[in-house]
Amino acid sequence: MRAPQRVPLAGLPERVRIWEVGPRDGLQNEPHTVDVAVKAEFVARLADAGLTTIETTAFVHPRWVPQLADAEALMTTLRRRDGVRYPVLVPNERGLDRALAHGVTDIAVFASVTESFARSNLNRSVAASLEMFAPVIARARGAGLAVRGYLSMCFGDPWEGAVDIRQVVAVAVRLRELGCTELSLGDTIGVGTPGHVVALLAELTGAGVPVQEIGVHFHDTYGQALANTLAALGAGVTTVDASAGGLGGCPFAGSATGNLATEDLVWMLDGLGVWTGVDLPALVQTSGWLADRLGRPSPSRTVRALAKGE
Ligand code: MG
Question: Is pTM beyond 0.90 here?
Answer without folding.
Answer: yes
